[in-house]
Every structure is written in structure tokens, then in C-alpha cells.
UniProtKB/TrEMBL annotation:
GO molecular function: apolipoprotein binding; heparin binding; lipoprotein lipase activity; metal ion binding
EC nos: 3.1.1.34
Broadest EC class assigned to this enzyme: hydrolase
Function: Key enzyme in triglyceride metabolism. Catalyzes the hydrolysis of triglycerides from circulating chylomicrons and very low density lipoproteins (VLDL), and thereby plays an important role in lipid clearance from the blood stream, lipid utilization and storage. Mediates margination of triglyceride-rich lipoprotein particles in capillaries. Recruited to its site of action on the luminal surface of vascular endothelium by binding to GPIHBP1 and cell surface heparan sulfate proteoglycans.
SUPFAM superfamilies: alpha/beta-Hydrolases, Lipase/lipooxygenase domain (PLAT/LH2 domain)
Domain PLAT: 338-461
Phylogenetic lineage: Eukaryota, Metazoa, Chordata, Craniata, Vertebrata
Full protein name: Lipoprotein lipase
Annotated organism of origin: Alligator mississippiensis (American alligator)
Keyword Cell membrane: yes
Length: 484
């Protein structure tokens, strides 16, 4: 009997050793169903999984040098064809550590479930979300780790994993950032099955690939956070066309070919990385009801939280309804641009209406200049005011003067061969989005004659007595419609 009892004790000891340090039979029962892995990456080796935090094993946190007093980022990848991490993972890890050196950056590894057929992997988001929630609750229960130090960053399907995890934790976590959350099977899903504003104290979302019908869009089209930002309208990102892809392949080879295939979808990650790396100059987004109104420059207001930083430095504004915001970006990092609303009233002796007209605008500032910015005015009509958006990739400083040029159409037109169209412009009104400055520019000759196919006309800051300008035929500024 003594030998039998000794054998039972020995078997129990062997089972305990196999389970790992710090594990009890109770914790094994709670956490044995977790398949997801939690790798604590390091600043020195951001691209390798060298230490895992194991739910139920207290010693694993000490072994991996988990920092109990700093914030924790959990990065959750999306669907994968190869079953391997994508090249953006170490880039995001490295950027997070550069911005927050004392933090914990944990990669949630659910690669086995994420490499199935898409509908199967999409269904697995529930189980993976449950795994992540169990991990967060365990850290809080075992070590009193505060929920306000937890920030989940989920890409594509990983964004919905983050949402489900946030909905299952015992207390609300601090923040979830959704990086172009996946659209298929989630566009019309109920809130508990996808990312939603209820899943964290603050949920911000970047939408970068929302093309096509809602049920076929790679990225989800509907707003699913407290603040939803749609860079470049959210449908397609600059630099992601075929010509740009071929140019990059010629310059850099096929090493980043995966970036080119899913360029717009993955741009959400690189925009967030950009926000981590360029702390002093965050990109600015503006609240607007539609992207069409934003393209007209009608939404460059910062009053009542109508503008916000994009990415890591976003101001946590919780609203009763989803807040949709827009901005323009460059085709590569640093992505920040400077937005301007331009407003022009076109005068003329004859009633003329032209559609889809190509123009060039040049902006000259105190520190730099940007010449020949091309844009299309959908319509120009006599005695009407039009507003449009332009942006520069360089900071020109305070705007001092500008010029306008009306280009000829690219196609041959008999009408233009015999007739030269001209509009008169007295002044141009400009609002700078980043500085919120409003400026009025006048023609040096009193009236500028903008002729189709003619030379550029110059405008400088208006000076002198407004009454004198009105006597010269100018419309007083107070009579020109202001921003909505």
C-alpha cells in the first residue's frame, strides 16, 4: 500500500511539473482550454517570440520580465494565408517600444486558427476573444494589474477579436484601436459579435479599405467606435495603385511584395506606426457628415471637438453617437499633410456654366511653397461661390500669396477653339485646417481675369480700407457665405 501511495504522489508531481511553474489543479482547469499564445516581445528582439506569458502560470510573468507598473499593449493579428506573422508585426512592436520604452508589448498568437478558410477564421474570433479576455482577467486577479493600463490593437479580424475580448472582461479595459476591422461577415453583425463602442472605455478606428458594396468590402464600412477615421475617404489609399507597386518592386525588389498586395488594408497599421514615430507633428482629422462635404473643404473646423489627432495621440472624446472623421495623407511616411479650404466667387458678364474643370493652385508661405497643385472643380458657374479642399505635403508656414490657373481640357474641343472663357475673381478666401487661420486674398489689379488656357493670376493678402474695395465693385466679406 505504501508503494502504491508513493506512486500516486510521484504521478501527481510529474503532472504538476509538466503543467509548468506556479500552476495549481484549479488554474489548470480554468485555463487549459486556451489555445492562443501570448508572446512578450522585447525592444532588443522585436521580431521573435522568445518568452510566453501563460495564463495560470504566475512564474511566467517574472520569467519574461513583465513590468507590473507600466501600460500593456496587446497586438492582435488578422487572417493569414501563410500561417506566419506578417512583416508589419515587428515594425509595430518596435514603434510601440520606441514611444513607450517601459511598456509591455504582447503579441496574441492565434495563427493556427487564423490560417483557415476565411469564414472559419472569422468564426474563431469568438474563441480567440474569449482567450484574450481570460488572459486579461487573470492578470487583474493574480496581480491586481489595472484594466486602465490595457490597450488592445487589432488588425482586420484581430479588431473584432479585440472587441469580443473587451466585451467579456470583468471590467472595461482602457482602449481598443481597430486597424481597418474586417468587413466580410461583420458588416451587418450585431454589436456583441464584432468591435463596438461598448467594448472599452474608448474605441478608435482607422478605416482604410472600404471599397465596393458593404458585404464585399475588405474593411468594415460602418462606424464601430467612438471615433472612426476614414483617411482619404477610406476607400483607397495613395501609393497603392499598380504603377506605384511596380515602381516599389523596381526599387526594393520583391521583399515587401505582401505589402503591395494588401496595401490599402494594411495602410491602417502604418498610419498608426506613423503616429507613434512622429510625436511632435500628429496628423489631424476632421469631423464631417460625408466624405463629399470634406472634399469641398467644408469641415476644417476644430470647434466643439470637431478635429482630433489621428492614431496614438488621439484625444479620447466619447460621444453619444459615432463620430466620423476624415483627412488626407501622403503616399508614404511621414503621412502628415496640411489641409486648406479655398473659397472663390466667380463673376462674369454672361451666364456660363462649365463642368469638370481642371485648375492649378500654387501656395506661397513664410517657410516654403507648393506650386501647381492640380484639382478638378465639378462645376463653375457665373455669379456663384465654390468651396474646395487642397492640401500640401510640406509645411509652407503662414500663407502669404497664391495663384490660380485654369487649364485647357485634355481632350480636343471645337468650342474652346473658337471661344475663350473668362471669369472675374475679386478675392479668394482660405482657411488653414491645422492652424485654424482664416485669410482673404485680393488681386493686385483689383480684379483678376481667370481665362481658360491662360496664364496664372496672382492674389496677395488684402490690405487697405474695405469701403474702398466695395466702391471698386468688390463684394463685402460679410456678404460672402461662411463655413457651415
Amino acid at each position: 500500500m505504501a508503494w502504491g501511495a508513493l506512486l500516486v504522489v510521484l504521478c501527481l508531481c510529474l503532472r504538476a511539473l509538466a503543467a509548468g511553474p506556479g500552476t495549481t489543479p484549479e488554474t489548470r482547469g480554468i485555463f487549459e482550454g486556451i489555445e492562443s499564445k501570448f508572446s512578450l516581445r522585447t525592444p532588443a528582439i522585436p521580431d521573435e517570440d522568445i518568452c510566453y506569458l501563460v495564463p495560470g502560470q504566475k512564474d511566467s510573468l517574472a520569467h519574461c520580465s513583465f513590468n507590473h507598473t507600466s501600460k500593456t499593449f496587446l497586438v492582435i493579428h488578422g487572417w493569414t494565408v501563410t500561417g506566419m506573422y506578417e512583416s508589419w508585426v515587428p515594425k509595430l512592436v518596435d514603434a510601440l517600444y520606441k514611444r513607450e520604452p517601459d511598456s509591455n508589448v504582447i503579441i496574441v498568437d492565434w495563427l493556427t486558427r487564423a490560417q483557415q478558410h476565411y469564414p472559419i477564421s472569422a468564426a474563431y474570433t469568438k474563441l480567440v476573444g474569449k482567450d484574450v479576455a481570460s488572459f486579461i482577467d487573470w492578470m487583474e486577479e493574480q496581480f491586481n494589474y489595472p484594466f486602465e493600463n490595457v490597450h488592445l490593437l487589432g488588425y482586420s479580424l484581430g479588431a473584432h477579436v479585440a472587441g469580443i475580448a473587451g466585451s467579456l472582461t470583468k471590467k472595461k479595459i482602457n482602449r481598443i484601436t481597430g486597424l481597418d476591422p474586417a468587413g466580410p461577415t461583420f458588416e451587418y453583425a450585431d454589436a456583441p459579435m464584432r468591435l463596438s463602442p461598448d467594448d472599452a472605455e474608448f474605441v478608435d478606428v482607422l478605416h482604410t479599405y472600404t471599397r465596393g458594396s458593404p458585404d464585399r468590402s475588405i474593411g468594415i464600412q460602418q462606424p464601430v467606435g467612438h471615433i472612426d477615421i476614414y483617411p482619404n475617404g477610406g476607400g483607397f489609399q495613395p501609393g497603392c495603385n499598380l504603377g506605384e507597386a511596380l515602381r516599389l518592386i523596381a526599387e526594393k525588389g520583391f521583399g515587401d511584395v505582401d505589402q503591395l498586395v494588401k496595401c490599402s488594408h494594411e495602410r491602417s497599421i502604418h498610419l498608426f506606426i506613423d503616429s507613434l514615430m512622429y510625436e511632435e507633428k500628429p496628423s489631424m482629422a476632421y469631423r464631417c457628415q460625408t466624405k463629399e462635404a470634406f472634399e469641398k473643404g467644408l469641415c476644417l473646423s476644430c470647434r466643439k471637438n470637431r478635429c482630433n489627432n489621428m492614431g496614438y495621440q488621439i484625444h479620447k472624446v466619447r460621444t453619444k453617437r459615432n463620430s466620423k472623421m476624415y483627412l488626407k495623407t501622403r503616399s508614404q511616411a511621414p503621412y502628415k499633410v496640411f489641409h486648406y479650404q479655398v473659397k472663390i466667387h466667380f463673376f462674369g458678364k454672361e451666364n456660363v456654366t462649365k463642368t469638370s474643370q481642371p485648375l492649378l493652385i500654387s501656395l506661397y508661405g513664410t517657410t516654403d511653397e507648393r506650386e501647381n497643385i492640380a484639382f478638378i472643380l465639378p462645376e463653375i458657374s457665373t455669379n456663384k461661390t465654390y468651396s474646395f479642399l487642397v492640401y500640401t505635403e510640406v509645411d509652407i508656414g503662414d500663407l502669404l500669396r497664391l495663384s490660380l490657373q485654369w487649364e485647357k481640357d485634355s481632350f480636343f474641343s471645337w468650342t474652346e477653339w473658337w471661344t475663350s472663357f473668362t471669369f472675374d475673381i475679386h478675392r479668394v478666401r482660405v482657411k488653414a485646417g491645422e492652424t485654424q487661420k482664416k485669410m482673404v486674398f485680393c488681386s493686385q489689379d483689383g480684379v483678376a481675369h481667370l481665362q481658360k488656357g491662360g496664364e496664372a493670376v496672382m492674389f496677395v493678402k488684402c490690405l487697405g480700407n474695405p469701403v474702398r474695395r466695395r466702391k471698386a465693385g468688390h463684394k463685402p466679406i460679410s456678404e460672402i457665405k461662411t463655413d457651415p
